[in-house]
Sequence to fold (266 residues):
Amino acid sequence: MSMRVRKRDGRLEEFSRGKIIRTCLRAGASRKIAEKVAEEVESQIYDCISTDEVLELVIESLLKHKYTKGTRYDLKRSLLRLGPAGFKFEKFVARLLEEYGYRTETNVVIEGRCVNQEIDVVAENEAGRYMIECKFHNMPIYTGLKETMYTYARFLDVRDSGRFTQPWIFTNTKFSEDSKKYAACMGIKLTGWNYPEKGGIEQLLETKNLYPVTILRVDKETIDAAINAGFVFCRDIVRAGENELRKLGVRGARKLVEEAKKVLSL
Fold:
């Protein structure tokens, strides 16, 4: 009997053992571990199991096989948790871009030709000056044509006064096909989950080992405390260390540092 997996939008698709293996390999696991994980997950699933349940089974299996990077498999959901954890997505985007050499400002009010506009992130490097609109979703829904057209309209209003060279949209999920077509036509940069093909938000994070603290398998209260203290990435947690975290009122500091080191393979 074939097994089906229920996606977050309610659609059902056939369970794919090969998909589990490919994803584990992309996460850095060996072929041997990837095949063992796929076998174990397949033996535990039931018809209409949710994608979140499958994900938990994969992570547990990876960790059981001493693959310390197993938690990285949860990157997509960790981005969905950024908002509820109390950290504004525009601050996260600014920090990410700074790691790539951009100078950034957040929540900048610029007097446009028609009205004042509050820009989520202003980013600048040698190539140009960008007006960035941040679209955070706490569910895996698309950023669509409407949001893309709205961003371009705002860009036209502030382009001259803000000395912007290009509009740019960041999202923690995906873009609709119409959104991509319109952006390509109008010259709008898009960065989202797995888009563009080389340079999606997950690739930008993984390339520099910038895993958000929301990926850590600790209680929500500890995560919230760390974020409220200004820690965005697991690397920040390790650099600060247990004593500094305690000084800033972060409870569960030892566990937090231990889990961050596992994610970073330290």
